[in-house]
Amino acid sequence: MAAPVWSDDTIADLLTRQRLCSYLDAMNSELSAALGLYDWNTDAAGAALSLIAMTEVVARNAMDEALCRWSLRRHGTENWFDTVQLDTRGNADLVAARARAAVRQPAEIHGKVVAELTFGFWRYLTASRYLTLLWTPALHTAFPHGHVDVATRRGCVEQRMQRLLFVRNRAAHHEPLHQRNLLGLVSDAIDLAGWISPDAAAWMRARERMTVVYGCKPGAVASGPRSDRLSGA
Questions:
Q1: Cα radius of gyration rounded to whole Å, the chain
Q2: How many CB atoms sit inside 10 A of residue 92's CB?
Q3: Among residues 78, 85, 87, which one has the least CA distance to residue 111?
Q4: Neighbour count for residue 11 (Cβ, 10 Å)
Q5: Cα separations (Å) of 222 from 23, 27, 150, 203, 225?
Q6: Got the DSSP string for 159-219?
Q7: Number of Cβ atoms within 10 Å of the Cβ of 231
Q8: Angle, CA of 211, 217 and 220, to the nearest 5°
Q9: pLDDT class for 184, splitting at 50, 70, 90?
Q10: Is the pLDDT at 220 greater than 90, yes or no?
Q11: Burial classification of residue 51, based on how many CB atoms lie within 10 Å of its CB (0-12 exposed, 13-18 middle, 19 or more buried)
């Protein structure tokens, strides 16, 4: 293999030594090995974003359908955007999403609004504050294969969505993932999808790339994977 035509020291300076600190620690201060781990981290971030994107779309569509059914039953219209009661934060997110979806559109398109709502918004709807208002009458039906107890099901769904959201945000901001239990991320995503539909879980299991990427992780990271998947870098 031809020798690289760049200077590792220059690349390290461009990335900044501060950013590389966790990689250097993991690879015993060997710069070339640390850069190799940094490269792997980029691949892992891509695999994580792909996996979470599949999960997010399946989950938000299932939750949207549940809210449409609830609104039709309760208010006579499927347009839950106009009938749902959210707190200040949730309402602000919905108003902003509707405004973004309306740009260059003669009329509001329901699916565009759903797509504009962030993963954080959907996770927020699974919080305990909405247990009696939305989860029990509506949202638990989006996860029919989840825990038999509706309240427990909410906690399980919120937990998985929170962990997925945390990793998605780290991956999107180019933060280190190499100390994370990324195989646990796969389990979280497939759990969540399976509670919606066994077919969704099988589809994601066949398409996810994280398992292969994780198997290519360079070297033995000195500190090992962290078990606290929600802690900071």
A1: 21
A2: 12
A3: 78
A4: 15
A5: 10, 7, 42, 34, 9
A6: HHHHHHHHHHHHHHTT---TTS-HHHHHHHHHHHHHHH-HHHHHHHHHH--HHHHHHT--S
A7: 10
A8: 125
A9: very high
A10: no
A11: buried
End-to-end CA distance of the chain: 34
Taking the C-alpha atoms of residue 233 and residue 230, their distance in angstroms, rounded to an integer, is 9
The per-residue pLDDT for range 67-94, each reduced to its tens digit, is 999 999 999 999 999 999 999 999 999 9
Percentage above 90 pLDDT, the chain? 89
Annotate 55-105 with DSSP letters as a single string: HHHHHHHHHHHHHHHHHHHHHS-S-TTTT----HHHHHHHHHHHHHHHTT-
The helix/strand count (H/E) of the chain reads as: 10, 0
